[in-house]
Design goal:
By secondary structure, this protein is α/β, with parallel strands linked by helices. The protein is built from eleven helices and eleven strands.
Length: about 300
């Protein structure tokens, strides 16, 4: 298939492009910068330039590319810019979907998240409602996800991949990233992620497994799918393990819990044949820590 990847140089996109090429697809990577275009070409794909907020420019580029499938990986999370990420989920998605429909594309695969569900005790499956009416700033995030998924669903086939918290190369959780800084005591960095070692539950996914799921989703039917590993875990469990892997101080354990922090079930994705190679954050965290140490020796 001819596949356009919007956000081709992000944490997922940079791994996804070569995976799609290896699967026999023709890939066009979209980036807003000249440096991004060069990285796409170095990966072996064609490259086109557009700004997601430029409605006319996006339409022209996507129509010319004439993809069968559009992959939506647009965020500003590398810059820890939640406001722009919400704009991309709303305005950027609108521009991309309208352009894709004009180009005759049949399918979209969109990056969503698995921690926007309504509060509950058990890991959420896809039948659970999103957390509509949540207090701010969470409410703005949930509304952005709602708009992203509803707008994507205007296409003939729309798969919303609800990724867990991404870790691995190019993410906040990688060695030297924002989370390592936060665990080392950087108060500004601490605002970027929820790092309390308490009873709040999180589901993770290695960035490479997220990319593999995106390749698989080219053949999946419409609807949301949780893309998370096999072990939702309380912060009391995972934060100390991450701190050890990153070589940072371990925080004190707490007993509180955010009622929305419930984790997510990957049963639906498993039923479609997908399994994460990093089945649990326990080994995944340790592996990325070992790789970082080896690269500096």
């Amino acid at each position: 298939m001819r596949i356009l990847v919007a956000g081709a140089t992000g944490a997922v996109g940079r791994l996804l492009v070569p995976m799609l090429l290896d699967s026999g697809h023709e890939v066009i990577g979209l980036s807003r910068s000249a440096s991004g275009l060069e990285r796409v070409r170095q990966a072996g794909a064609s490259a086109v330039q557009a700004d997601a907020f430029d409605r006319d420019g996006m339409r022209q580029v996507v129509t010319t590319a004439a993809p069968d499938v559009v992959v939506h990986q647009l965020t500003a999370l590398s810059d820890a810019d939640g406001e722009t990420t919400n704009r991309l989920r709303e305005e950027g998605t609108r521009n991309l979907v309208d352009a894709a429909n004009s180009a005759g594309a049949q399918r979209i695969i969109a990056q969503s998240i698995a921690w926007a569900y309504a509060p509950g005790e058990e890991p959420a499956d896809e039948a659970v409602s999103l957390d509509f009416g949540a207090e701010q700033p969470r409410g703005a995030m949930v509304d952005g996800i709602r708009r992203l998924e509803e707008t994507s669903a205007e296409m003939q086939t729309a798969v919303a991949l609800r990724y867990g918290i991404l870790y691995g190369p190019g993410t906040w959780y990688a060695p030297g990233g924002a989370v390592a800084a936060a665990l080392s005591g950087d108060s500004k960095a601490r605002l970027l992620a929820y790092l309390e070692a308490d009873r709040s539950v999180t589901s993770f996914i290695h960035v490479a497994d997220a990319a593999r799921a995106t390749v698989a989703a080219v053949d999946w039917p419409s609807g949301p799918v949780n893309i998370v590993d096999d072990e939702p875990a309380e912060g009391r469990q995972w934060v100390p393990v991450l701190a050890e892997a990153l070589g940072t101080p371990a925080p004190e354990l707490g007993t509180g819990r955010q009622n929305w922090a419930r984790g997510a079930s990957n049963a639906l994705a498993h039923s479609r044949g997908w399994q994460p190679e990093h089945a649990t954050w326990r080994t995944g965290f340790a592996e990325q820590g070992h790789r970082s140490t080896a690269s500096t020796e």
